[in-house]
Amino acid sequence: MAHHGFGVSGDTDPDLPLSPEGVTYHVTCTSEHLADRIVLVGDPGRVKLVCTHLDAGSIVYEAAHREINVATGAYRGVPVTVLSTGMGTDNVEIVMNEVHILKEYDTQRRRWRTRVGETPADELDVPFDPSTVKLIRVGTCGTPNDDVPVGCLVITQYAVGMDNTCQYYVAPEVNATADVQEVLAKVRTTSLGSVQIYATKAAPAITQGLVEACAALNAKASAASPQEQQPRAQQQQQWYVGTTCSGSGFYGCQGRSVGRFHGRLTAPHLTEELGDLRFDVSEGPQRIANIEMENSALCYLSNMLGYQAGTVCVVVARRTRTGRAFASPAQTATALSNAITVALETLIAT
């Protein structure tokens, strides 16, 4: 089934834009077609790539609006939605609000659903469990970390927002924990101290699930028959767990000084500074693992809502004190396929 538009009526609420059929303004689907398990990608074209990993013939809904494409099918028989956000935390903010609407707003009764632990409004009101909503971003990134090679998968444990999107929302409770405050304090010692940054954390169950899925992926590759095996260096997918920084742009916001912007950045040595940081958190010593453009808002807003979210990214660029490197198309394609697999396996296991 395909859908390609949002139909408004005269009584549409501009603060809660829903069509009479219950279709949200940007994520053009109804609650019926949004699964509890969601793969988020930045690139709209990547939705079709993720769909090739779903069960054959399982796609039941597809829609597109601007850079936000949606497709719902199944993975190993479990309903999964694939959703593109476009680039940036600002787009993630839009998508997260509309996922929230689709999951928790009763369009027929025009009211928000009660949650587990709250008193039901009436005998027909089925309380909603927010922890059933699981979102994993699959993306690409750069790294300031000497220990992280191109082609590696980075799994987010902590998140640093170098953007301002979530400054418009009251911080979730996890942000006040000692671990998150440790990350925030250390990052503020860099030139980012002049920027109003924030920090939060990915859902621990998602982080652990991604780690276990990576280990299982490699175990499966090692157990393959001799005819199926590639050279060992190619079959083993490297991964690294660490802190993800999210910028509101690609160039100056990530320390790239281009042309006549050279010498005019507020954080000109950003990657070097981030690469030098060390955090002492309850999981053990940790470093900045990667820089991208979406994760901070995903984790922050999911924590506010009680949803479980995390991110796995393919490292395509290495920007460290010791050198620069860019992944080949073949490296990127292989690692991205592996990232999609581990994300899907995590979604159906958690």
TrEMBL record:
Pfam families: PNP_UDP_1
Residue ranges of domain Nucleoside phosphorylase in the record: 37-347
GO cellular component, one term: cytosol
A GO MF term: uridine phosphorylase activity
InterPro entries to which the protein is assigned, alphabetical: Nucleoside_phosphorylase_d, Nucleoside_phosphorylase_sf
Protein's GO biological process: uridine catabolic process
Protein name per the record: Nucleoside phosphorylase-like protein
Species: Novymonas esmeraldas
